[in-house]
């Protein structure tokens, strides 16, 4: 029995020494110190020994078990030290190396355009007003001289929640609300930036969601020449002093007379090119004198007050200013595209 225990000890110590990781060491521990291990078997067989041999073999078996356990603990500690040392080596930090640069974000090009337009019009004496994106049918249409049977109120053109509630299709309701709040007393001189929503198929030049900036000026003796002067000043400040504007007759339900406003092409200088379709002009916004019915519905006496209104698409302005050929670039969150506007 003694020879068996000595052989077990020698064998266990060899396996402990050969173990290269915690898993192998655990297998040795279970094999020799577990309930079904050889040392346990020796202790169970002590009943067959003589009275003189039992204490000697029992003591020896306990000594062998204690020595194996001690060697296992020592090897476990050694393996842990090796693991920690290896991990520290792999994760060693060179404090003399330069730090990683912090990637800075930038204003979105649409936001940059909105802020630039706001600065220009604030410099011209306008204030900035905002309103709800979920709007009532009255302010979105009726107060702007668009009666119930007007084509623009087709359910296929707008996002309706109910018959009287929808996502606004323009920022003009802000104008109507502001006029109403003035209770027929001028002047009113505002611009209204914000998101608008229309049922449109997304492509290179259209989106179901886009941004508008509309303007309104109401006071005594406001004329079409005032409108032209304001828009001419805006275009020169936004696009450059060399740019010119022209007004073409058009139709909008809330203005009379109404005009489309073109700006001279910055690429060809007005001589004609592919961008301006050889015309030398590019359409940028719509405008006109506020319709007397709109003034009256908002509490203003059209015999005492007159005014002009205009509206422009922010995406349109940005595409022209930065030569962007697809409106979808603004909404895909491609950092390669957005990174170009860090200084905008």
Description:
This protein folds into two domains: 2-90; 109-341, 2-Layer Sandwich (BirA Bifunctional Protein, domain 2). Helix content is 40%, strand content 20%. The protein is built from eleven helices and ten strands. It is elongated, with a radius of gyration of 42 Å. Residues 61-92 form a coiled coil. Its cofactor is Mg(2+).
Task: Briefly summarize what is shown.
By secondary structure, this protein is an alpha+beta fold. It has 2 domains: 2-90; 109-341, BirA Bifunctional Protein, domain 2.
Based on helices, strands and strand pairing, what is the structural class?
Answer: alpha+beta
Task: Note the run of SSEs as H and E.
Answer: HHHHHEEHEEHEEHEEEHEHH
Report the CATH superfamily of the largest domain: Bira Bifunctional Protein, Domain 2
Low-confidence segments, given as residue ranges, are none
Q: Major sheet, described briefly? A: 7 strands, mixed
Order of strands, widest sheet = 1-5-6-10-9-8-7
| CA distance, first residue to last residue | 89 Å
User: Can you count the beta strands?
Assistant: 10
Tally of contiguous helical segments: 11
Report the average pLDDT across residues: 87
CATH names the topology of the largest domain as BirA Bifunctional Protein, domain 2
Shape descriptor reads elongated
Computed over alpha carbons, the radius of gyration is 42 Å
Sheet-strand content, in percent, reads 15-25%
* Domain unit count: 2
Question: In which range does the helix fraction lie?
Answer: 40-55%
The second-level CATH architecture of the largest domain is 2-Layer Sandwich
CATH class of the largest domain equals: Alpha Beta
């Amino acid at each position: 029995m003694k020879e068996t225990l000595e052989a077990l000890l020698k064998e266990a110590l060899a396996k402990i020494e050969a173990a290269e990781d915690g898993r192998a060491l655990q297998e040795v521990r279970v094999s020799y110190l577990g309930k079904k291990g050889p040392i346990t078997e020796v202790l169970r067989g002590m009943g067959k020994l003589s009275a003189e041999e039992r204490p000697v073999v029992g003591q020896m078996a306990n000594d062998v078990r204690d020595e194996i356990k001690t060697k296992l603990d020592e090897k476990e500690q050694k393996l842990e030290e090796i693991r920690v040392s290896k991990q520290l080596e792999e994760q060693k930090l060179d404090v003399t190396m330069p730090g990683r640069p912090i990637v800075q974000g930038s204003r979105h090009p649409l936001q940059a355009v909105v802020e630039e337009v706001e600065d220009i019009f604030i410099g011209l004496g306008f204030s900035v007003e905002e309103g709800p994106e979920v709007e009532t049918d009255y302010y979105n249409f009726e107060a702007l001289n668009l009666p119930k049977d007007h084509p623009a109120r087709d359910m296929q053109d707008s996002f309706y929640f109910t018959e009287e509630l929808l996502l606004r299709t323009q920022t003009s309701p802000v104008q109507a609300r502001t006029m109403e709040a003035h209770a027929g007393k001028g002047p009113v001189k505002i611009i209204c930036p914000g998101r608008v929503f229309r049922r449109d198929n997304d492509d290179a030049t259209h989106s179901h969601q886009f941004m508008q900036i509309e303007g309104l000026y109401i006071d005594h003796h406001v004329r079409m020449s005032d409108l032209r002067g304001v828009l001419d000043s805006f275009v020169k400040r936004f696009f450059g002093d060399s740019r010119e504007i022209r007004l073409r007759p058009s139709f909008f339900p809330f203005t009379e007379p109404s005009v489309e406003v073109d700006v001279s092409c910055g690429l060809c200088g007005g001589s004609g090119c592919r961008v301006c379709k050889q015309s030398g002009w590019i359409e940028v916004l719509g405008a006109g004198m506020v319709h007397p019915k709109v003034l009256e519905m908002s509490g203003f006496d059209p015999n005492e007050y007159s005014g002009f209104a205009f509206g422009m698409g922010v995406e349109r302005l940005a595409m022209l200013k930065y030569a962007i050929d697809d409106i979808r670039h603004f909404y895909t969150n491609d950092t390669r595209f957005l990174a170009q506007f860090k200084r905008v």
